[in-house]
Amino acid sequence: MAPQQRKPHVCRNPDLIRGVGKYSRSKMYHKRGLWAIKAKNGGAFPKHEKKAVAAAPAEKPPKFYPADDVKKPLVNKRKARPTKLRASITPGTVLIVLAGRFKGKRVVFLKQLTSGLLLVTGPFKINGIPLRRVNQSYVIATSTKVDISGVNVEKFDDKYFGKKVEKKKKKGEGEFFEAEKEEKNTLPQEKKDDQKSVDAALIQCIEAVPDLKSYLGARFSLKAGMKPHELVF
Amino acid sequence: MPFKRYVEVGRVALVNYGKDYGKLVVIVDVIDQNRALVDAPDMVRGQINFKRLTLTDIKIDIKRVPNKKTLIAALEAGDVKNKWENSSWGRKLIVQKKRASLNDFDRFKIMLAKIKKAGVVRQELAKLKKEAA
Q1: What's the superkingdom here (chain A) (predicted)?
Q2: Model pTM?
Q3: How much is the ipTM here?
Q4: Which of A62, A123, B58, B67 maximizes the CB count within 10 A of its CB?
């Protein structure tokens, strides 16, 4: 037999107003069936023996008491969570970046990382913006959405974008300048391949919509007569 | 310069201030020097100051304070909706609303279309100039 569905139990003594129940003490006694429980037990309410408490080991008084009373910090049960994502930002939304070297560029939102930052891509072929993290506060969400179902963004997280830890160099004064020149910041081929794979599916969906490609390639700017508080994005 | 649009029972007016801003309403009764009783298919009949109304050219044939059903029937008979949407005033309002609701992407597409149209116009003009010269 399928497990029986339990109906949520309605309370026996509904409130007339807060603090005042519908039924009196004696009526509730009858409703709860305490008379029946007593009758079953021969006139008195059934009692059970108290469980024997295991004797706690005798504690020695401490040898040392601190001179001043140290205050304990208040208990803090807050959990670290990623920033709450605005309802207008969903995977595939076109965002307008407002600050940084890409200010004014329109960009496709992929997902929110655990740090709260938004993972975003140009796509690179269209407007030169690589896979990048962007803060939600520096972004305007438009209502234009791109279909993002063909893109796999599982492998990207904050560590992927972190700075690479350099090996500790020995203090060689003469070789200092030459050594620094060798370590140029070239992008590892792996990151270039990641960019290509993410963008491949995206660009196909973008080219399906007329004008969307040139839209993403263009920068946003305020022109004469545009009032940001009246604009619908 | 005599007046052409009169406050009368059946005059269609546009609300220009307040909670019902932008609605087309019908004056169904005059309360006193300043206020009218006003009704529309999507609102509860109520009083409104004349200062909050702008009269239109449209007038429908109703008796003083009709009930909602009669009012709606009279609006259909007078074809108020189409008359309004085809009038230049009505068309302007529709364009204003459309412009206000444009998306960022829509504004971009409009910009492209304007540039294209201007290009075509300029080509034609150049052609005509060449012929005239």
Answers
A1: Eukaryota
A2: 0.74
A3: 0.80
A4: A123
